[in-house]
């Protein structure tokens, strides 16, 4: 993933006529914090916080708890965050954090201890004007609330602006949970308008029916009547129906702990994740993990339009292959930017001691997503380059 991110920066830089030194300065990471957290039990966990670029404002980016987190992944994600915030015009930089741990193996007491000790170790390097972390894979508002409390206890900062993704009761923003999925719906809707196909009925498959994928599906079902969801997957299996799936029904099933391998409704069929990638649908939404499409399965993709709701779900080689085949890929740094946009709104609310209504949050998110998608398309057309290249060109312009 890191090689792909750096390669995209180099491509964008060359398209803008930058020299090697200018490109290297865009790739360079400002600071790396790598440390170990020792638990009361004696167990130790390796932890990271990477701060890539803060030219536009405080570092911003999530914290993931995952057994396969590694330094290069966190470097790549911090780099992509710098370009994401720049591409959508936010006055923020890019950072990312993680702990190598399977949180499912921890008790609630251990999870709180780990979260607090992570925040405690980073106190000198984070803060409302320096670096504002957020939740990511396997972290949530409860974990962030613990971290905020730990930060407050040490610094006496009561603004709540040290982290975003908090619970509503603890200074979180309305609309944050749905923001990434909602932003993806807006970006795709705007792109289809630009392509002059917004009035056509289109079939959709969603790979990864977690938080982001489920909100994309349920919101699009309510607001985009011409989009028909025909397939959705979790980590174990996918469900398919040529007659269409009810996103709300799927969401309720998942909320109750259901697995798609056991889903039964009407004429739905259980298929594999691999099969979902190759379905003859119009739109393939990738909302699972990075590198979902690579050289090994790129030829199976039949969808004309691909939405990168996850970070880096199409690797560089597959991106080039699919683009040459005429596929149109809505890039991750635009498609999934709704989350960081509403995180920015949360940070603003905390700094101003305000609390916005969900309608105000959604309306402001709409403005940012419409503008970013419009600028993305215009740059792509003007320079005759792919949408992903255009996204990085726009970001680089804002970072120079």
Summarize the structure.
This protein has helices at residues 2-15, 20-27, 71-87, 108-122, 141-155, 179-194, 211-223, 247-255, 273-277, 316-324, 332-335, 338-352, 358-383, 387-399, and strands at residues 31-38, 44-53, 59-66, 94-100, 131-135, 202-207, 227-233, 238-240, 269-271, 283-286, 305-308, 328-330. By secondary structure, it is of the alpha/beta class. Helix 3 links the parallel strand 3 (59-66) and strand 4 (94-100).
Describe this structure in words.
This protein is an alpha/beta fold and 400 residues long. The protein has two domains: 29-170, 3-Layer(aba) Sandwich (Rossmann fold); 173-400, Rossmann fold. It has 14 helices and twelve strands. A seven-stranded mixed β-sheet has the order 9-8-7-6-10-11-12, sandwiched between helices. Strands 1-2-4-3-5 form a five-stranded mixed β-sheet. Helix 3 (71-87) links the parallel strand 3 (59-66) and strand 4 (94-100). Helix 1 packs across helix 14 (387-399), helix 12 packs across helix 13 (358-383) and helix 13 (358-383) packs across helix 14. The longest helix is centred in the last third of the chain and has 26 residues, at 358-383.
């Amino acid at each position: 993933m890191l090689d792909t991110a750096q390669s995209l920066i180099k491509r964008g830089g060359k398209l803008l006529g930058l020299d090697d030194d200018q490109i290297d300065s865009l790739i360079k990471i400002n600071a790396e914090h790598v440390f170990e957290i020792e638990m009361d039990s004696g167990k130790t966990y390796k932890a990271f916080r990477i701060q890539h670029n803060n030219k536009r404002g405080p570092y911003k980016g999530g914290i993931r708890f995952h057994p396969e987190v590694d330094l290069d992944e966190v470097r790549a994600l911090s780099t992509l965050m710098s370009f994401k915030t720049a591409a959508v015009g936010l006055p923020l930089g890019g950072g990312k954090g993680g702990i190598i741990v399977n949180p499912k193996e921890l008790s609630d007491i251990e999870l709180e201890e780990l979260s607090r000790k992570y925040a405690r170790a980073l106190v000198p390097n984070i803060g409302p004007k320096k670096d504002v972390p957020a939740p990511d894979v396997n972290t949530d508002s409860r974990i962030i609330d613990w971290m905020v409390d730990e930060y407050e206890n040490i610094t006496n900062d009561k603004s709540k602006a040290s982290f975003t993704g908090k619970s509503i009761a603890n200074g979180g923003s309305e609309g944050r949970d749905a923001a990434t999925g909602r932003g993806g719906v807006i970006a795709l809707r705007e792109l289809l308008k630009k392509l002059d196909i917004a009035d056509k009925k289109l079939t959709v498959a969603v790979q990864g029916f977690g938080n982001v994928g489920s909100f994309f599906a349920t919101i699009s079902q309510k607001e985009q009547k011409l989009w028909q969801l025909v397939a959705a997957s979790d980590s174990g299996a996918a469900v398919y129906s040529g007659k269409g799936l009810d996103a709300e029904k799927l969401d309720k099933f998942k909320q109750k702990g259901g697995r798609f391998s056991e889903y039964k409704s009407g004429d739905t069929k259980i298929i594999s994740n691999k099969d979902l990638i190759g379905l003859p649908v119009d739109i393939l939404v990738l909302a699972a993990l990075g590198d979902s499409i690579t050289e090994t399965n790129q030829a199976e993709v039949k969808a004309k339009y691909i939405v990168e709701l996850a970070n880096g779900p199409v690797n560089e080689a597959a991106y080039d292959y699919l683009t040459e085949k005429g596929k149109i890929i809505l890039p991750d740094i635009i498609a999934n930017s709704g989350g960081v946009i509403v995180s920015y709104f949360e940070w603003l609310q905390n700094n101003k001691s305000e609390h916005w209504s969900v309608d105000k949050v959604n309306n402001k998110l709409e403005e940012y997503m419409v503008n970013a998608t419009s600028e993305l398309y215009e740059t792509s057309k003007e320079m005759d380059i792919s949408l992903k290249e255009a996204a990085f060109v726009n970001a680089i312009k804002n970072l120079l």
